[in-house]
Amino acid sequence: MKTTIHTLKQKKQNKEKIVCLTAYDYYIASLLDEAGYDLILVGDSLGMVFYGYETTLPVTVDEMLYHTKAVSGAAKNALVVADMPFLSYQASKEDAIRNAGRFLKEANANAVKLEGGSEMCDTIKAVIDAGIPVLGHIGLMPQSVHKLGGYKMQGKDKKGAEKLINDAIALDNAGCFGVVLECIPEELARDITEKISIPTIGIGAGQYCDGQILVVNDMLGYNSKKAPKFAKRYADVDGIFKKAFEEYKKEVQR
Known about the structure:
By secondary structure, the chain is an alpha/beta fold. It has helices at about 5-15, 25-35, 45-50, 60-75, 95-105, 120-130, 145-150, 160-175, 185-195, 215-220, 235-254, and strands spanning about 20, 40, 80-85, 110-115, 135-140, 180, 200-205, 210. The chain is globular and about 65 Å long.
């Protein structure tokens, strides 16, 4: 049965954990779907692990559409959420609605993800009012890496924590079906999870979120040289590939 935004809200109410990972192609998405994952995020993290960019900032809408369409073709049951890349929604509500709509219309996504808290709520509400479900994202926001001064934990002091709590409540009130909490203290993530009605999806935010997500390359050890410290590695795909490539080369050169 296809997962919907209502399925995720019901899981929060039932205290069932929501299982998520990123995917950027048909093959990985099909494996996640077969494994029964609730949500697959086509993250703009693909800019770093797929295209080799230094940050997510260069990622374009067309690049995201291409990968989202591939993932959507494989996801028969998982909810597919597409990241809206940098400057695809910040300039105006009209831009946000138009670009968000393309992900549903052209790439068959079920929802989109936007970074930002209270300052983005008017835009987020406009997108939702246009019939497009939105997953929020606060804490460490990779599209604001230069503003934040790097990939650093957020909400460590009282002022920062209060802002994140208020941002989460604002996103809930704006109509988001969930919110990603990235790289914030575990106790703060628990506080936010208890205060809002929508599911929280943690990435480097501890065990108390309603669900968890990682970049698939980080957890597979696959082209993830810049993996964050919080990302547990479940495999060593790089090592397997290198061994196979070396064996093939030796056989050819005999």
